[in-house]
Amino acid sequence: MAMSWTRGLKHGVVPRHAAQLIESRSLAIASKGKKGGKGGAADAAKTPALSQELKSTTVFGANILKEGSDPKIQPDSEYPDWLWHMLNKRPVLSELRRKDPKTLPYEDLKRFVKLDNRSRIKEKNALTAKN
């Protein structure tokens, strides 16, 4: 049963009984008078509120050592130049196909070849796949 359900997820088909289970599930609300539970309002009240100054000078959660502390935020000049270009949007395959390959910069041309090869491989695999 579980095997057929996972196969159904792989192909985007969900059996009717699984869909009914998903639709009827809801989250349970913890009772306020319950003692000894995990998490809850009591734990939230115990955590100290961080000051705005501390939030703007420290990277919280970046410490990986047991005995260490979270690192301080450095000025922008202390970080490498490539870091500021990490979130730049790169063109997708459909955009690259609309442009003339002769006028593309080298990095975009390299990306176009990689994405085009990947899409052709996926199409060929889909055609030759066993159902």
Q: Which short descriptors sum up this protein?
A:
elongated, 131 residues, mainly alpha
Structural features, described:
It comes from Sorghum bicolor (Sorghum). This is Large ribosomal subunit protein mL54. InterPro entries: Ribosomal_mL54 (IPR013870). Belongs to the mitochondrion-specific ribosomal protein mL54 family. It holds the Pfam family Ribosomal_L37. The chain has six helices and no strands. It has a domain at 91-129. With 131 residues, it is mainly α. It has helices spanning 2-10, 16-24, 41-46, 52-57, 93-98, 106-128. The radius of gyration is 26 Å and the shape is elongated. The protein is 45% helix and 0% strand.
Topology:
Blueprint: H1 2-10, H2 16-24, H3 41-46, H4 52-57, H5 93-98, H6 106-128
| Head-to-tail CA distance between termini | 19 Å
Radius of gyration: 26 Å
Low-confidence parts: 19-25
Order of helices and strands: HHHHHH
**Principal-axis shape:** elongated
Proportion of beta-strand residues: under 5%
Count all strands and give the number: 0
- Please report the number of helical segments: 6
Task: Report the biggest beta sheet as strand number plus sense, adding barrel if it closes.
Answer: none
What is the subunit organization of this protein?
single chain
